[in-house]
Amino acid sequence: MHRIPIQSLPDVVNQEILRNMTPSEIYLASMTSKKTKKLIKRNIYKVDEVGVEISRQDYGIRAAVYIKIEKKICYVVCLEFRIRPLRRVDNGYQLLENIVAIPSIVPNHCNMPAIRRQIHSIHSYVCDVFNIDTSNLSVRFPSDIYYEFFDIGTVKKCTVPDELLESEFSMKLFNQQKNMNLLIVERSRGIVDCGYVYFYQHVPTVIHRNTQNRSSFLLTRFQGQHGLFKNCFLHGFYVNVLLRLWSENKMDNLVSMIAYQSVNRPFDYEKVVEVLEDKMGKSEGNCLNALQVEKPSEKRIYPYESIISQEHQFEADTFDCDGGYDVVRNSDEKRATIKISKDYFMFFVWP
């Protein structure tokens, strides 16, 4: 077999070569020499994210570094920490199903400072190879929350299944990661209780794909900026409470909230429309005394700028505010638009 002198090939050829290599093969190639790593960095394709996934395995715990390209996750390299030490320790690299398995410097998961350093080192290296800012640390916990695997204040994005929000480890995670700016709660297959919203109510951006009864708490207690809540059990009463709280400057961080009703649950949205229409009629006994309600006739598109748009594909007319209700806060004349139907509730604060 002849060797291919990739250093002498034009960039367009190297780019095609890299597109046909797995992320693990690119990782291994980058370690062969500084020149090869530099060549890879110059020609590598664009990735959206480099993150770390911590998962429970039969033998212990696996920390896997992955890349994300157009919402597809590709694993690059993993570390394995065994609950029980093995009689035989393999000190070599292994290529397992398109992922490189690196021997841990710590055979079990007792020395957490050393484990954190090794995970951080490998994550930083993969970020460097794929030209991603290493400070934007994304983590995934598909089976259990291993908050202790990361230094305090370093996690910026976190993905967990909804069933894990009930655990005490969830509380410890959010207490330690105050700099988290995006939380994604995925839908699990098990039966999920309401949960404790106050664990994560201050995260600036939250995507919850299986909100259910949590919608009542999030509508009235969410202290972040942007929320996308799917499969909600919306009630008109709690939507009206949100409007009242916002009018009284008690949810002043809120910029946008999009909540989609569950297809199997009725939403008494008429109660909200009734209050808004009543307020437009200048009723003095209305619960929204701190607001003015209008229905503008001009066509407007809300300038949505949340990072949620990188994680969710919205319908084309989502931010078309034509026909929506405008609420204007008396205290500072801040304006927001409400879009509401049997299928959704949307709240957009204008800049």
What do these coordinates show?
The chain is α/β, with parallel strands linked by helices. The protein has 2 domains: 1-84 and 96-136, no CATH class; 204-350, no CATH class. Helices cover 24% and strands 26% of the residues. The chain has helices at residues 11-19, 23-30, 34-43, 112-129, 168-176, 214-221, 236-247, 270-280; strands at 49-56, 60-69, 72-82, 94-96, 99-102, 137-140, 155-161, 182-186, 205-208, 226-232, 256-261, 291-294, 325-329, 335-340, 344-349. It has a 15-stranded mixed sheet with strand order 4-5-3-2-1-6-7-8-9-10-11-15-14-13-12. The chain is elongated.
Structural class: alpha/beta
**What best-fitting shape do the alpha-carbon axes yield?**
elongated
Order of helices and strands: HHHEEEEEHEEHEEHEHEHEEEE
Number of domains: 2
Largest sheet: 15 strands, mixed
Instruction: Give the termini distance in whole angstroms.
Output: 62 Å
Read across the widest sheet, the strand sequence of neighbours is 4-5-3-2-1-6-7-8-9-10-11-15-14-13-12
The level of helicity is 10-25%
Query: What is the percentage of strand-forming residues?
Result: 25-35%
Count of DSSP E strands?
15
Quaternary structure of the protein: single chain
Instruction: Pick out the low-confidence regions.
Output: 86-91
Total number of helices: 8
Q: Which tags fit this structure?
A:
single chain; 351 residues; alpha/beta; 2 domains; 15-stranded mixed β-sheet; 24% helix; 26% strand
SSE topology:
Blueprint lengths: L10 H9 L3 H8 L3 H10 L5 E8 L3 E10 L2 E11 L11 E3 L2 E4 L9 H18 L7 E4 L14 E7 L6 H9 L5 E5 L18 E4 L5 H8 L4 E7 L3 H12 L8 E6 L8 H11 L10 E4 L30 E5 L5 E6 L3 E6 L2
Parallel strand pairs: 1-6, 3-5, 6-7, 7-8, 8-9, 9-10, 10-11
Antiparallel strand pairs: 1-2, 2-3, 4-5, 11-15, 12-13, 13-14, 14-15
